[in-house]
Amino acid sequence: MSKKNKNIEAIEDQVEEVLDTTTEETDAENTSENEEVDIETQLKEDLAKEKEKFLRLFAEFENYKKRTSKERIELYKTASQDVMQSMLPVLDDFDRAQKEIEKTEDKNLLKGVELIHNKLKETLKNKGLTEVEVAAGDVFNADDHEAITQIPAPSDDLKGKIVDVIEKGYKLGDKVIRFPKVVTGQ
Questions:
Q1: What is the three-state SS of the chain?
Q2: Which pLDDT does position 89 carry in this prediction?
Q3: pLDDT higher than threshold 60 for residue 149
């Protein structure tokens, strides 16, 4: 705003100088008062037009700055989406490996895999990746889940609900990058 005020003041000073020199010249030439009023009116109109142009240009520039900063923030949020999507199969493999290793009696192997798995999950979580919470028995919603197949419901209370979760879903920030794949009961 201070630049705007400085520019307006500079324009006003220039107009005043022009008015002063014009007034001195017209006095020196002994022109009539009507001509002085006409020139002064013309200069004031020109000044008003220039002020309006300046204000419009300034407002347009402010809108441009806001728009580009918003676009930049959005780009930063979704820039890692491709990397995150390529890491999801690795995370799924870790989950499957951990389930299989839990069946063995080698506690050191299980502990080592858990440490690496947790480190990978925490690193991805710090970058904005979160798991979409879904469990067996939840109500199926086509907007939030991807149904792979339907099976006869094991019980009446599971009709139209999720029977099993085949693949976990993930969100990056507020955007779902992979919907959970589920089996529903009919």
A1: CHHHHHHHHHHHHHHHHHHHHHHHHHHHCCCCHHHHHHHHHHHHHHHHHHHHHHHHHHHHHHHHHHHHHHHHHHHHHHCCHHHHHHHHHHHHHHHHHHHHHCCCCCHHHHHHHHHHHHHHHHHHHHCCEEEECCCCCCECCCCCCEEEEEECCCCHHHECEEEEEEECEEEECCEEEECCEEEEEC
A2: 93
A3: yes
Backbone Cα Rg of the chain: 35
The answer to pTM > 0.70 is no
Q: What is the pLDDT of residue 4?
A: 59
Q: What is the mean pLDDT of residues 29-43?
A: 74
Judge contact between 178 and 166, C-beta under 8 A. no
